[in-house]
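About this split. The held-out portion is used to measure sequence recovery: a designer receives only the C-alpha cells and must propose an amino acid at every position. Recovery is the fraction of positions where the proposal matches the reference. Here is one held-out target exactly as it appears in the evaluation file.
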C-alpha cells in the first residue's frame, strides 16, 4: 500500500453537499457515497477531522438578512450542523469507521463536548472526528471553524469540498470564460475576493501556514487521489 502524502487532514463539507439534487434535507445516497470515499482514505491510515455545514437545513446568514436576529439565526445554523454530523456519523460507522461527534455547543445526549486534547486523542486512536456546531459562536462561518479546528488538531492540509473542480476567478456555473487556478497564495485569494471561503478563514490559514486544497466532492475517489499526491483541484498555500 502506498504511503499517503498527508497523515492528518481536516475536511470541510458543506451542508448543501448532503442535500443532493433536491437542494434541501439529507440525501441518503449522497451521504453513503461520501462515506465510501472517506473509507478509502481511512484504509490508508489517514487521520481525519471533518467540519460540516448546515446550509441544507438552515442558513443563519439568509435568515438574518430576512430580519431575524443574527446571533439567534447563527445558533439555529449550528444546530443544523449537528443534525448533519449525526447523519454522517451513522453513514461512516455503517461503512466500518469508528466515528466521534464533538460539538462546540454542549449536547451531552448526542455528542461529546469539544475539547482539543480529546479530539487529538480520538484521532491518534484511529477514530474519525466530526466537529459539529461550528466554533460555537455566532458571526463565524463553518469555513472559519474548519480553519480553526484544522490548526488545533495540527492538520497538514485543509480539504475544502465544493461543487466545482477547483478555484476559479469567477463562478464557472455562471460564466463560460471563468479561469481555473492550479495554485494560488492565501494572500492572492484574499485580495482577489474569491468566494470559495470567507476572508476570516483565509486569514487564519495564511497566518498559520495551513495549505488549502479546493476540489469537487462528487467526483468519486477525489479524496483518495489527493492523499496519493495527485494534483486535484486548486492548491492555496
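Reference sequence for scoring:
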Amino acid at each position: 500500500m502506498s504511503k499517503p502524502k498527508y497523515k492528518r487532514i481536516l475536511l470541510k463539507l458543506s451542508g448543501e453537499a448532503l442535500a443532493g439534487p433536491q437542494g434541501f434535507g439529507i440525501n441518503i445516497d449522497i451521504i453513503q457515497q461520501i462515506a465510501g470515499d472517506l473509507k478509502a482514505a481511512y484504509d490508508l491510515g489517514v487521520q481525519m477531522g471533518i467540519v460540516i455545514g448546515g446550509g441544507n437545513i438552515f442558513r443563519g446568514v439568509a435568515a438574518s438578512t430576512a430580519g431575524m436576529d443574527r446571533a439567534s439565526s447563527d445558533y439555529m445554523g449550528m444546530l443544523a450542523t449537528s443534525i448533519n454530523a449525526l447523519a454522517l456519523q451513522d453513514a461512516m460507522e455503517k461503512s466500518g469507521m469508528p466515528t466521534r461527534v464533538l460539538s462546540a455547543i454542549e449536547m451531552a445526549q448526542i455528542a461529546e463536548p469539544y475539547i482539543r486534547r480529546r479530539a487529538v486523542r480520538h484521532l491518534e486512536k484511529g477514530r474519525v472526528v466530526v466537529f459539529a456546531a461550528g466554533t460555537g459562536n455566532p458571526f463565524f462561518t463553518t469555513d472559519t471553524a474548519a480553519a480553526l479546528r484544522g490548526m488545533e488538531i495540527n492538520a497538514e492540509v485543509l480539504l475544502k469540498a465544493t461543487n466545482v473542480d477547483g478555484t476559479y476567478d469567477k463562478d464557472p456555473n455562471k460564466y463560460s470564460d471563468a479561469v481555473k487556478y492550479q495554485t494560488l497564495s492565501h494572500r492572492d485569494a484574499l485580495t482577489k475576493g474569491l468566494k470559495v471561503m470567507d476572508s476570516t478563514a483565509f486569514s487564519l490559514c495564511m497566518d498559520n501556514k495551513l495549505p488549502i486544497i479546493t476540489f469537487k466532492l462528487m467526483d468519486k475517489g477525489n479524496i483518495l487521489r489527493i492523499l496519493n499526491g495527485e494534483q486535484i483541484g486548486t492548491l492555496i498555500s
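Annotator remark: The radius of gyration is 17 Å.
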